[in-house]
Each structure stands twice: as structure tokens, then as C-alpha cells.
């Protein structure tokens, strides 16, 4: 559950930059969004692996 909370926190942290990029055409915000999305992808992958391992052990 800790990692899922991290996912939610990361999405919430990116919200301001997403708004700046799409609504205000701020290129630097787009870079931060891309980095955050990559971090989100990596975190999601680690959660997937953890769930799969737990499922296989049961």
C-alpha cells in the first residue's frame, strides 16, 4: 500500500505542471511532466512485479 500512496502523491504533484504545460504552454513544465511520468511508469512497474510475486506465493 505504501507504493500505491506514492503513486497518488506523484500524480498530485504533477497536476500543477500538467496545467502549466497544457494551459499556459510552459515548455519547462512539459519536461517536468515527462520526467514525472517516467517515474510513475517505473513505480507502477515495481508495483506490478510486487503484486505478481505476492500472487504467485499464495
From TrEMBL:
A GO term, aspect molecular function: DNA binding
Transmembrane segments: none
Taxonomic superkingdom: Bacteria
InterPro entries associated with the record: Hc1
Family: Belongs to the histone H1/H5 family. HCT subfamily.
Its biological purpose: Might have a role analogous to that of eukaryotic histone proteins.
Stated name of the protein: Histone H1
Provenance organism: Pedobacter chitinilyticus
Amino acid at each position: 500500500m505504501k507504493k500505491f500512496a506514492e503513486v497518488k502523491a506523484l500524480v498530485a504533484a504533477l497536476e500543477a505542471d500538467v496545467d502549466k504545460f497544457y494551459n499556459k504552454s510552459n515548455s519547462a513544465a512539459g519536461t517536468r511532466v515527462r520526467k514525472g511520468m517516467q517515474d510513475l511508469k517505473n513505480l507502477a512497474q515495481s508495483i506490478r512485479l510486487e503484486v505478481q510475486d505476492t500472487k504467485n506465493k499464495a
